[in-house]
């Protein structure tokens, strides 16, 4: 029976394309791609010629019928986005939901994903985290999101683009405070890959003083709120002091 393969592609370094991704792209009959020009470059790099059909945010729901027809006719399909794992802040959700509902098999071909790559090297708590993707492009929307996340204790992870990174940090400081610890992962797997660690205030100052730091693609990881932990440690401290006083 025909299947839909969700194939992860590199987020910068082409060597991150897995052997299984190459085999899958070689095997499938047709590839649905977020931007056919971007995927054509990847296929050319692999020496592959495949029918490429666009599937992006503006035509995704309309494309579903076509994909289902393809699958009914026995065609194996791949879904790729411009970079990284499809559906992760990328098109494909409606498609996968409807293809699953129609009873076809959907096979993930895992690989690069900026959120996971950033988290694995950031040095923030990884046992529990939440991914918020892109916040609003507008300041008011971003502030509303940060407000809702103010007491969130899990590590918070966001995607951001180069022209909004400064505004993003400004709003973060307004709502979460200047002292909140962050990690900014920039240009992962690429030539200028960098991790910046520090308080929100220090990182914004650094960004404003360094135009190179404002270039490229960003994952922002924010240390979770530790209000309860702080409260607990204050109580432990008080108990210790009380103990000492009683002993005196
Ligand atoms: N599907 C992709 C994934 O699996 O990570 C994400 C696609 S989303 C449209 C693009 C955003 O992901 C960028 O604005 C940036 O926040 C993040 N991103 C993608 N590649 C990156 C990289 N090499 N370094 C840092 N962030 C990256």
TrEMBL record:
It catalyses: cytidine(1402) in 16S rRNA + S-adenosyl-L-methionine = 2'-O-methylcytidine(1402) in 16S rRNA + S-adenosyl-L-homocysteine + H(+). It holds the Pfam family RsmI_C. Residues 40-248 form the ATP-grasp domain. Gene3D superfamilies: Cobalt-precorrin-4 Transmethylase, Domain 1, Methyltransferase, Cobalt-precorrin-4 Transmethylase, Domain 2. Keywords: ATP-binding, Cytoplasm, Methyltransferase, Nucleotide-binding, rRNA processing, S-adenosyl-L-methionine, Transferase. The keyword S-adenosyl-L-methionine applies. GO terms for molecular function: ATP binding; metal ion binding; rRNA (cytosine-2'-O-)-methyltransferase activity. CDD domains: RsmI. It comes from the Bacteria. The keyword Transcription regulation does not apply. It is found in: Cytoplasm. Its EC number is 2.1.1.198. Signal peptide: none annotated. It is an enzyme of class 2 (transferase). GO terms for cellular component: cytoplasm. Coiled coil: none annotated. Belongs to the methyltransferase superfamily. RsmI family. Catalyzes the 2'-O-methylation of the ribose of cytidine 1402 (C1402) in 16S rRNA. HAMAP family: 16SrRNA_methyltr_I (MF_01877). This is Ribosomal RNA small subunit methyltransferase I.
